[in-house]
Amino acid sequence: MKFHHYTFRVMLISLTVTTGACSSGPEEKTQLDSLTSPAKLLDQGIHHYNNNNYAKSIHDFDKALLQYRSIDNQSGIAKSSLNLAKTYMAINNNQTAGAYLVRANEVIQQASLVELNEHLHLLQSSLAINNARYEQASDKLELALASKNTPIQLAALKNRTSIAFHKNDADKQQWLEKYRTLQQKHSENTASHLARIIRFDAESSHDDKEKTKLLARSLSISQKQAARTAIAATLSQWASVDIEQKRYREAEDKILRALFIRHQLGDVRNSLKLLQKLQTVYDRSADQKLSLVENWIKKLQAQELSGWDALFSAFDRYPQL
Fold first, then answer.
1. Residue 242 CA, distance from chain mean position
2. Other CB atoms within 10 A of residue 75 CB
3. How far apart are CA 260 and CA 313, in angstroms?
4. Tens digits of per-residue pLDDT, 166-186?
């Protein structure tokens, strides 16, 4: 968990408040509530984000943003907006994330907050990847790839490797090796990056047993960190391998485990993808639950979310109280 806290203090930014003593006149308060209150809210939001509680982190970041706006603190406004963008991306609400990034960009440029440009460009790259705009995503990484800040550079290499794999570029292994080399150089507290590298290795492998071994290792790392989104992503990737090998029962198990996590996080987009994967499993295995999953796919595709809370209970294999 230490790595997550450290990394997202780079991606999710807090604001440290310091005040100087006056040279004359009555002694002033060393800390003003109008400054410390939103700063505390940013820290609370980071804490909730690191514990995968995105609803609470959004609540805290939004309150921090309002308070920073009330005192016209441009740095606080920019950081709150970046944090909100990052959090909305975590639940695949990319439209809202994009709106916050546009506003953050405007504030950063107008107030010349150059120290935030690396964070901004990295998040812009992540958003472009989510929207399958890979050329744009690659262009946005130039500054972050050259960063002297190791967590930012690691995150940039993760994104750049992901782009290369998405596009199946000829140099995808070269980017993976750059990513691996930097992670190995800074192996302490970078287990999340190690887990992602192993998933890239599994994707590169053409051997079923090797894929299974690598994905099991990656999953174990993510489970030890309680990294929910990484756990769900690994289970989904592993389910795809099971489907290829016609291990439909095993695939169903992993998809449902991943679906539970995505549903709990309120991630509609990835829940839909998992349901579509489950549709393939049920279709190929002639499972009677095919019509059920098709019905939910239609609802999510039509943005009919009124019954969202009941989605997973329709597939849950655990007793309902």
1. 25
2. 16
3. 9
4. 999 999 999 999 999 999 999
